[in-house]
Amino acid sequence: MTLGRPLVRLTLSESEREELISITRSRSLPQSLATRARIVLLAADGENNTDIAERLELSKPTVGIWRKRYLVQRLAGLYDEPRPGGPRSVRDEQVATLLRKTLKTKPKGGTHWSCRTIAAETKLSKSTVQRVWKAFGLQPHRQKNFKISTDPFFVEKVRDIVGLYLNPPDHAVVLCVDEKSQIQALDRTQPTLPMGLGYVEGVTHGYIRHGTTTLFAALDVASGRVLTKCKQRHRHQEFLGFLREIDAAVPKKLDVHLIVDNYATHKHASVRRWIAARPRFHIHFTPTYSSWLNQVEIWFNIITQKAIRRGTFKSVRDLIDKIETFVKNYNRKCLPFEWTATPDSIFDKLERLSKAIAGTGH
Asked: Exposed e or buried b for every residue in 133-160, given b needs 16+ CB within 10 A?
């Protein structure tokens, strides 16, 4: 004898079942949504509310609510409905005025608005300004640097270099080569205070300069390994010396493709003669103002952040030793950088930037 009102049979189409299973397996969706999907799947398999509640450790009324919601609204019924709240205190006209003023004007005597200055100007609270700016992605306090290349062969050079990244030639090694000049060996005038619970590392702003070094680096695009050498100066003579080290390090049976920027040292007559005398060497120049195309710049940023910027060095020799130690440890577990930008995606981005500049009227 069955007690109570009989349950309405819940049936699923094939597409609904697939969607519900996908929800239960998702790692990005809320767990509450995944639980509701499991309730529906079990109900469609013929289980009653009591068994489902026991299996999922839920109350029987909860199971009944979501089962009924699905019968009426299907998949849309599993999502939370908007909850009632207090009336909005800021009108649409006020938001529009704030956005126009942020985007189209500047404060008197200033370069950009701050939360406080524009709040006083628009008679809104500082917290309201912050919420609106965050909602619309406005950050007046920040700037983003850019420089559009004027190289007449920009398209050809981009296709050449990106082609080496995405489809490197056989029986060859592709090396991104550059130098980081004038790295200072700075020694703090007072001991560094170590990081502790509740406070960050403390360093004095005073320092002693012990001299500088220039770091030459060649990044192997295929393996991620880096060949480096520290030299006192960064003239064409030092660059030639580094090229000789590359020549000695790369097996003679392989061609060598060098990606370098337009620094005068890289185009010196002596360098050109040296390259011309070695047929296995091929040099590829990045377009002007496009050093971001050279992957070794990514590595320079890594070593700067992890080994140089916050370092304390008693001498130039100490600086060089610590650079060499970092490189040695880096090469033990290095991985190649994953280059995903195609030439067409770069050109599309450049086109959007050019249109944005044209739209400013400058």
From this structure: beeeebebeeeeeeeebebeebeebbeb
pLDDT at 80: 67
Spatial contact of 300 and 292, defined as CB atoms under 8 Å apart: no
3 state DSSP class of 312: coil
**Smallest Cα–Cα separation from 292: which of 234, 330, 339?**
339
pTM for this model (two decimals): 0.67
Q: For position 138, what pLDDT does the model report?
A: 87
- Any bridge partners for residue 208, and if so which? 187
What tokens appear for 268 in the block?
Answer: 């010196």
Give the other-Cβ count within 10 Å of 21's Cβ.
13
Count Cβ atoms below 10 Å from residue 121 Cβ, excluding itself: 16
What class has domain 154-195+202-346?
alpha beta
What does residue 336 show for φ and ψ, rounded to 5 degrees?
-70, 150
Nearest CA-CA partner of 230 in 336, 315, 337 = 315
Residue from 190, 192, 209 nearest 201 by CA = 192
User: How far is the first Cα of the chain from the last one, in angstroms, to the nearest whole number?
Assistant: 84
Q: List the domain boundaries for the chain.
A: 14-78, 93-135, 154-195+202-346
CATH entry 1.10.10 includes domain 14-78 = yes
In degrees and rounded to multiples of 5, residue 254 shows phi and psi of -105, 140
| Tens of pLDDT, residues 234-274 | 899 999 999 999 999 999 999 999 999 999 999 999 999 99
